[in-house]
Amino acid sequence: MSIHKSDIKKITTHQLQEMKNRGEKISMLTAYDYSMAGIIDKAGIDVILVGDSASNVMAGHETTLPITLDQMIYHASSVVRAIDRSLVVVDIPFGNYQSNSSEALRSAIRIMKESGAHCVKMEGGSEIQESVKRIISAGVPVMGHLGLTPQSIFKFGTYTVRAKEEAEAEKLLEDAKLLEELGCFAIVLEKIPSSLAKRVAEEIKIPIIGIGAGPHVDGQVLVMHDMLGITHEFRPRFLRRYTDIHNIMTDAVSRYIEDVKSNDFPNESESYQ
Ligand code: KIV
After folding, report:
1. How far apart are CA 120 and CA 87, in angstroms?
2. Ligand 1 in reach of 211 Cβ (< 6 A)
3. Cα of 1 to ligand 1 centre, how many Å?
4. 190 an active-site residue?
């Protein structure tokens, strides 16, 4: 019996809530292109984040700030064409929601209409509440992002752990409660103490997805290029590497070069008669 696309049960924001309610952890990874998104969707990932980390890992920028809305839509539409099951969340990039809620709504609508993605993600708490409210009122699900928010890297000055001090921890908890009240369907917590993430996940009903936030949250997200070992130099404490694609690719490419140079490739069976 063959499985048709229409037989596959798609992940929805409501299912993520049910997963939290029954204690099933949510798996989330980034993807930015058709081929990689297809592999991780077929492997069974729950959520694919078209992160603005594309700015770093795809385009080679030092920060996430330079990536544009058009570029995010290009990445997101490539991902959406590949998926059968996963929920696709897209980062609204820096500069496309901070100035006012009308611009934020226009950006979210462009992402939804032009890429076919299912939801958007935005960094920040009370500062962006009008925009979050307006986007959700228009029917677009929003995932929040608190803690280390890379779009504010020049304000923080470093990528070290956030909210270690009481005041910042309290503000983060208040922001998480606010995002829940505004109707966000989930929140990413990045690089904060495990004990604080645990408190947020216990006090907030919507799913809390961690990256560098310890094990006591409702799900985990990693940048795919990091967990596959493509980004070779990047080795933060929170990262678990599942393979070493950098070495695997280097070895394959070196052998290919050798075979071309020695005229071993192509051989007869790889040639047309
Ligand atoms: O852009 C991204 O990849 C992210 C994750 C680090 C959560 O926002």
Report:
1. 11
2. yes
3. 38
4. yes
CA-221 nearest atom, ligand 1: 7
Quickly tell me which residue has 């462009």 as its tokens.
110
CB count within 10 Å of CB 259 equals 13
For residue 60, which of 244, 239, 225, 254 has the smallest C-alpha distance? 225
Can you read off the two tokens belonging to residue 199? 């408190």
**Residue nearest ligand 1's atom 8 by CA:** 51
pLDDT tens per residue, range 45-78: 999 999 999 999 999 999 999 999 999 999 999 9
Give this prediction's pTM. 0.96
> Among 48, 92, 211, which is best to mutate for testing ligand 1, by the most ligand atoms less than 8 A from CB?
211
Does 221 contact ligand 1 (Cβ within 6 A)? yes
Q: What is the pLDDT of residues 140-176, one digit of tens each?
A: 999 999 999 999 999 999 999 999 999 999 999 999 9
Q: Buried b vs exposed e over 191-221: b needs ≥16 C-beta within 10 Å?
A: bbbeebbbbbbeebebbbbbbbbbebbbbbb
Q: Which whole-number Å values give the CA distances from 114 to 65, 74, 111, in the listed order? A: 21, 9, 6
Q: Which domains does the chain have, with CATH numbers?
A: 5-242 (3.20.20.60), 244-273 (no CATH)
88-132 pLDDT tens trace: 999 999 999 999 999 999 999 999 999 999 999 999 999 999 999
